[in-house]
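input
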Amino acid sequence: MDFEHERREEVMQYIFNKYGRERAGIVAESYLLPPPSAARDIGKALGFSQDLIDRLAEAVDAYDDPKELNQRILEVD
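output
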């Protein structure tokens, strides 16, 4: 479960108090999103239309050269 960063400590203290520190643990996992998935998440967060999100995701798919990526993104609009 993920908790709001400003209240994470509060949640941890609650769990420690309820179950004891010896019965509680912290686990974290991180991963990298593929560029198209990241573009989709960003587009949704910014309120872009589904059509624009699809075009952005397509533009960043399997890019190699950052200069080429910049040009592709500029051409989306």
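quick obs: The two ends are 37 Å apart (CA to CA).
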